[in-house]
Structure formats: C-alpha cells, structure tokens
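ASSEMBLY PREDICTION REQUEST
Request ID: AP-0331
Submitted by: J.K., bench scientist
Number of chains: two
Total residues: 544
Priority: normal
Notes: Please return the full assembly, not individual chains.
Input sequences:
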Amino acid sequence: MDKELVHLFELFISASLINNFVFTRFLGLCIFFGVSKKMETAVGMSVTFTAVMVISAALSWLIYNYVMIPLDITFLKIVVFIGIIATFVQASDTIMRKITPGLYYKLGVYLALISTNCIILAVPLINAGEKYTFMTSLVFGLGSGIGFALALVIMASIREKLELADVPRPFAGLPIAFITTALIALAFTGFAGMITL
Amino acid sequence: MEIKRKESDFIVTVSPHVRSVETVPRIMWTVVVSLLPALLCGVYFFGLRVIFVTALCIVGALFSEWFVEKLAGKPITIGDGSAFLSGLLLGLTMPVTVPFYIPLISSFIAVGITKQIFGGIGYNIFNPALIGRAFALITWPRAMTSWVEPSKMFDLNNIGAAFSNIGMWLDGKTSATPLGILKLEGIAKVFEPYAAKADLYMNLLIGQRAGSIGETSVIAILIGALFLMLRRYISWHIPVSYLATVGLFSWILGGKEGLFTGDALLHVLSGGLMLGAFFMATDYVTSPSVKKGRLVFGFGCGILTVLIRLKAGYPEGVMFAILIMNCFAPLIDRNLKQKVFGLRKGK
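STATUS: Completed
Returned structure:
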C-alpha cells in the first residue's frame, strides 16, 4: 500500500512537472497560446481543463476496460475516446447552462475549446496503452491537468509582463510567445531523469 | 540672447523623481569589476586559455547585441556594459577546454535571442548567460562536461607552457568535478584523495578543483559579492535564502544512511552554487523585485538545485534551478506585490 502511494505520487509529479505535456511533449499548444494572453482567462481555463481531464480519463477508462476489451474492439480506441470526450463536454455544457448559469458564464466558453484539445485525448490513450489501473489513470489525469494549468499560469504571467516589453515588431505577439515556450522547455530539461517510471 | 540648450537638458520621466548617480552602465561595469577576482583565479588554475574563452564569449555577446539592435533599428547600446557582463558571465560558466565555436554560438543565443529579441535590457525573462550555457550543455553535452584538473598553468618559471594551450587544449589531466564524482561514484570517492575532510573543504574554498572557469574559487567569488553588497547593488535576500535552503535540504536529504546525514558543506561549496547565487540569481531583471518574493525565489532555487543534484540526471542543478525560477519570477511578483495603501481586498 505504502509503495503504491509512493508510485502514485511519483506518477503525479512526473505527469505535472517532469514530463509536462506542454514543455516536454509539446501537446495542447493551441489552447496554451490561445488563452495565455490574460491571467484571468488562463485561470478559468486551468480550472475547467483539470476537471474535464480527470472526468474524461475516468469515463474512458471505464468504457475501455468494461466495454471495449470484452468486445475486443480496442483498435477503435481513438474514435471511441474522441466520442466519449465530445459527448461528455457537450453534456456538461448543456447541464451547466441549465443548473448553474453563473458558473456557465464564467467557464462555459472554455468548454468548447477543450473538446478538441490533444492532451485530453492523449491522456486516455496513454492510460490504455500503459494498462494503468483506475486509480493510476485518475492520478495521471489529475497530474496532467495540474501540469497544464501550471504551464498556462506561468505563461500568462510572463506574457502580461511582455506586453510592456519593447519587442522588435516581427517578433511581437505569438512569435515571442513561442520563443518563450522554447526557453521554458529548455529550463525544464533540468528535470530530465528525475523520476523514471 | 537666445539660450541654446541641449536636448538632454530636459529630462521628462515618470515618477519617482529621485536624483541619483547610479546609472545602468555604472552598475554593470561595477559588477564586471567584481567578477575579476573569479576570472583571475580561473587564469591561475586553468591557464591563459581562460582569457581566450572568456574573450570569445564577450566578443560574441557584444556582436549579437550590435547585430540585433542594428536589424531592429534601435539605438546601439553595446557600451552600457550589460552585454559585456552577460558575455563575461557566460565565459565564467564554460569549461576551459571548449572548442572556439561554442562560446561564439552560445553567446548569440544568450544575448541575441534571450535578451535582444525580448526587447533588450530590462525586458528579458531569463538570465541570458544561463540560457546560453543551458543551450550549449544540451547541444554539445560532451564538450561542455569535459573538465580538467587545475594545474596552475600560469607558472612564472614556465611562461611558454602557459601560451602553448591558447589555440587548442593540448594537455592537462582530465578529471570530474566533485559533484560529478558524487553523482556517479558516491561520497566516499569524493573524499578518497584527501587525508582529512577539511582538506577537501579548503580546496573547494580556494578553487583547487575541476570545474567551470569562474565557479571554482569560492573565496574569489565571495570577495566580489561582498564588494557588490557593500555598494548595495545586490541585496542579501536571494543569496542567503538560496544558500541556506541548499545547505538545509542537502543535509536532510543528501545522505545515503537516511535523513539528516547529508554533507551540507560539500554541497554549498561545490558546483556553480556560489557564482549562481550571488551573480546570476540576483539579476535585477529576472528575479522578483519585492523582498518577500526574493526570499521565495531563493528558496525555490535552493530546493530545485538540491532535487536536481540528488535525483535528476545532471550532476549540477544550479543553472536549471535558476532558469526554472526565472519562469516563476513574474508570478511571484504578481502575487506578493505590496498592496496599495487603503485598497480593500476584492473588487
């Protein structure tokens, strides 16, 4: 039990920092650059993203292990996972609008963007590929979500600072954001080899 | 009679209107001077090639600054000392044996990309010298980690030998840094050549060990740092919290026989920690500007340094730790900034 907890903790740290999806695998960059311009939207996105990540990891684990493996249709996992995520996101969008309009107006705009995000799809695929248990899948989803949230918040704080900078015209806006991301990724290589799973 | 006035007589700036003799060039050149003891120690231990490597870095840095500013149509600021300082710092973090193209290319990454493209002095997010070095380490891992034993090349009786090494590194015994030995072969191997533990600490203080050009001599770095602190150019917050955190956590986590058995002194005195803590983490632009934030910054650098040294693949973590904390500096500043007097929370 103790060993398992340590393993889960290591997996969490690994997913959030060491193998951060944005800085080491360069996934999910569209949302990353899209909403990191302002801190407010970055925080909203982070909260929504982490929640969707955990729930979709859990849903796709259940369907993969209790429906797809018995029916021997695991080769369909990409299509099925996309379906699950899209259905879940659309459903929560509708439910949230009906039940908590306040929350919907705060976070609802991000939901549509999330349904096509590649990290959200990558996490169930990795969970299936590595044959993670249910608990491990949840922790991996949570770690990935927190890691993405961290990346977004760091990036937003840097980009708000860069707004005031005298960046040469050809580099202003997105180009400098890409260069910044590259340099952050360079810094994050320091974590390499810290946890080998 | 019409009074002729120069344009510079009318200075229009935003508040605070404080008259001071301190200017950017003055501070930068003072920091350059305070790094000279470390550079001279490097020359003493590793020979005249140190000058060659450092000069290449400085020339590369000045050229990159000029080149990008020329392209961007901005006023040329290579005289203000900041590019010179970045080049010098980059040079001090190189091993003495590097081939000549590494200093040139990495100094362009340092000043051209990390500083100028972000808008020049005052706007860079990352420490230019450290990005230059991180880039070099990842691109040329072999060349950037081939260390030689200090051999006092600068021997007055044998001047010829001192000059013979300038073009290419010819002789010199290859060796590993204390942290490299610690990582690969364990702590017993670090102390093996010494009769007493104190001998190793003494050697680390003086700088008699393999390592980058300017990082080895703790005393020389402290002399420069003390000078800067007395001039109030750097505050104590970052270095003290950084060094204290490294000492504390390497003592707690660093031992093989369990908690609280690590050798804190070895960790604090070796690697690039002194150079990093006093001259790189304290960079005005890339560290938080509020005092509480500086303590947090130093603490974060310390934890990351210990974690990378003990757990990650690299033997030395100072460079990566400072770079990672540089990413967090705007966030720290944002959350710990002084509240405006009279402003209520919320709204």
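REVIEWER COMMENTS: DSSP finds 17 helices and two strands in chain B.
SIGN-OFF: pending second reviewer
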